[in-house]
């Protein structure tokens, strides 16, 4: 059990670094949306072998699921970007962003679960 916290911290640092690099490639708010969609797909795909296996959770699940993907996905930044768009009077863009982020992330996670269960 003592190994779990350092794994989560290491994964979180890696995930946050990857999120930062991705945000440099795609400006807000669309980069954040892409990160959330990809992170949702990844967690859906990886949940099957790492968390939902008949053998129980994989020992690296805290590193990958909680650490890397928790540090990578950005719903707190998503909320801030949404309110920023609304404050700037870009309500239509904000609603498109919210709908796209939530809808596409749910679809991506579902697709990831489906693909993960095929293996």
SSE layout:
Layout: H1 4-25, H2 30-50, H3 61-72, H4 75-87, H5 91-118
Helix pairs in contact: 1-3, 2-3, 2-5, 4-5
Notes on the structure:
- The chain is mostly helical and 119 residues long.
- The protein has one domain (4-118).
- It is 81% helix and 0% strand.
- Helix 2 (30-50) runs parallel beside helix 5 (91-118) and helix 4 (75-87) runs antiparallel to helix 5 (91-118).
- The radius of gyration is 16 Å and the shape is globular.
- It starts with a helix and ends with a helix.
- Fluoride-specific ion channel. Important for reducing fluoride concentration in the cell, thus reducing its toxicity.
- The chain crosses the membrane at residues 31-52, 64-88, 94-115.
- This is Fluoride-specific ion channel FluC.
In short:
Helix content is 81%, strand content 0%.
SSE topology string: HHHHH
Low-confidence stretches: none
The biggest beta sheet reads:
none
Oligomeric description of these chains: single chain
**Measured on Cα atoms, how large is the radius of gyration?**
16 Å
Function: Fluoride-specific ion channel. Important for reducing fluoride concentration in the cell, thus reducing its toxicity.
Membrane topology: Multi-pass membrane protein
Protein name: Fluoride-specific ion channel FluC
Keywords: Cell inner membrane, Cell membrane, Ion channel, Ion transport, Membrane, Metal-binding, Sodium, Transmembrane, Transmembrane helix, Transport
């Amino acid at each position: 059990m003592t190994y779990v916290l350092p794994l989560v911290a290491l994964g979180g640092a890696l995930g946050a670094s990857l999120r930062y690099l991705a945000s440099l490639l795609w400006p807000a708010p669309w980069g954040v949306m892409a990160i959330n969609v990809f992170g949702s797909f990844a967690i859906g795909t990886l949940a099957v072998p790492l968390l939902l296996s008949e053998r129980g959770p994989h020992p690296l699940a805290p590193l990958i699921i909680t650490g890397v993907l928790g540090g990578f996905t950005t719903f707190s930044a998503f909320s801030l970007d949404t309110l920023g768009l609304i404050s700037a009077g870009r309500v239509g863009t904000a609603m498109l962003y919210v709908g796209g982020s939530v809808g596409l992330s749910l679809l991506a996670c579902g697709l990831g679960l489906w693909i993960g269960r095929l293996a």
